[in-house]
């Protein structure tokens, strides 16, 4: 159909209005979805912290040299919370969760070989795996630096015990940090929404 010259401009205006309306109505939905996902991650991380805290408390913490340098670094400071961002925080959280899952699988394999009860380790590893899927759905891509190291064999029950205690200890502080980081992000997101309202 051939449009008359004087009908072209009104049509352009109409199409622009439709696009603008679509953008305005879609934006709150995206924000709401992001808010729900952050709240969900925050809740799941708090639950994980409670579980790890109980597991850690159940172990007899003895003094020994911690040697698992392959575990995620925990060089966080309170001041870092002022600069946390969603994308970088979720990327680091995903990498950390996958690393702990890898180490727990390593422990579980040794526990199984020794005939020990590995049900708690398996349950914890599964929860971490499920949570990593939730984080992955948020970030959409796998961090490029995600590389699992080669781990030394655990030759004795004592070595397996030491490694398990060290993993739970590091996981405990890892959870504490990300509960705080996700809580801070959730608060910032809410403040931004109230400001835009």
TrEMBL record:
Q: Might you report a single GO cellular component term?
A: cytoplasm
**Record-given protein name:** Interleukin-11
Coiled-coil regions listed in the entry: none
Highest taxon, organism lineage: Eukaryota
Q: Which GO terms describe its molecular function?
A: cytokine activity; growth factor activity
Q: Return the Pfam families for the record.
A: IL11 (PF07400)
Record GO biological process: positive regulation of cell population proliferation; positive regulation of MAPK cascade
């Amino acid at each position: 159909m051939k449009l008359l010259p004087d009908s072209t401009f009104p049509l352009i205006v109409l199409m622009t209005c439709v696009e603008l309306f679509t953008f305005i109505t879609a934006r709150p939905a995206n924000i709401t979805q992001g808010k729900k996902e952050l709240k969900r991650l925050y809740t799941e991380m708090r639950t994980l912290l409670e579980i790890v805290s109980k597991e850690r408390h159940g172990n007899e913490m003895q003094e020994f040299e911690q040697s698992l340098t392959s575990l995620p670094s925990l060089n966080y400071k309170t001041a870092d919370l002022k600069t946390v961002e969603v994308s970088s925080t979720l990327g680091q959280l995903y990498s950390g969760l996958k690393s702990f899952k890898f180490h727990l699988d390593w422990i579980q394999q040794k526990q199984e070989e020794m005939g020990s009860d590995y049900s708690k380790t398996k349950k914890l590893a599964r929860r971490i795996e499920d949570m990593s899927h939730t984080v992955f759905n948020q970030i959409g891509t796998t961090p490029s630096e995600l590389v699992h190291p080669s781990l030394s064999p655990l030759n004795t029950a004592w070595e397996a015990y030491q490694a398990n205690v060290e993993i739970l200890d590091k996981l405990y502080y890892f959870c504490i940090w990300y509960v705080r980081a996700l809580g801070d992000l959730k608060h910032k997101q809410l403040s931004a929404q109230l400001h835009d309202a």
